[in-house]
Amino acid sequence: MAKEFSRIDAPLREFIGKQAMFFVATAPSTGGRINLSPKGYQDTFAVLDDHTVAYLDLFGSGVETIAHLRDNGRITIMFCSFTRNSRILRLFGTGRVVRPDDAEFDRIRSHFGDLRSGLRAAIVIDVERIADACGFAVPYYELVDERPVLETHHVKAPEEAYARLIGRNQHSIDGLPGLDPDHPPPPPVGG
């Protein structure tokens, strides 16, 4: 049954490391839409210490997570086992955006594997609550492989494509500020 943990210990790190995907949830302070995003590529999530995690944020279809973190910082990460050993793990915390041109980015980057094309930022989360649940109703699935579509797209995209993405990522779907047009991130690594 459900259990709360005081820190991200070795068994939790092992569970997190075995998951092929995770989910990110954020919401604006008032009104607006809740954002719930699946994330993949297993080398894009890292446990930095017992109360801090981070993931690499890639250019994609929107900027909801960044906008919501700028608004209020609230974020929840969920890992869900689809194997015979059922388990759901949620990390509740406060997140912040660390861009490739920020001073601490290189230190955070050192916790990840190969840098993917299309990197927009790192999302760093100070974890305040760690809790699991049984996951008994979650079906079994077998992982076939990672889907290479986004990475392939970013590798082929010319630099001008990122300028368009930055323009499109200036606001969330609810109009909250996303990427700062006066301080756009540098061209994505590998793009």
Description:
With 191 residues, the protein is α+β, with helices and mostly antiparallel strands. It has one domain (3-168): Pnp Oxidase, Chain A, CATH 2.30.110. The protein contains 5 helices and 8 strands, in the order E-H-E-E-E-E-H-E-E-H-E-H-H. The protein has helices at residues 10-18, 64-71, 105-109, 149-156, 159-168, and strands at residues 3-5, 22-26, 35-39, 45-49, 52-58, 74-80, 88-98, 119-133. Strands 1, 2, 3, 4, 5, 6, 7 and 8 form an 8-stranded antiparallel β-sheet that branches. A hairpin with an 8-residue loop joins strand 2 and strand 3 (35-39). It is globular. The chain starts with a strand and ends in a 23-residue tail after the last helix. The relative contact order is 0.22. InterPro entries: Pyridox_Oxase_N (IPR011576), Split_barrel_FMN-bd (IPR012349). Pfam families: PNPOx_N. This is Pyridoxamine 5'-phosphate oxidase N-terminal domain-containing protein.
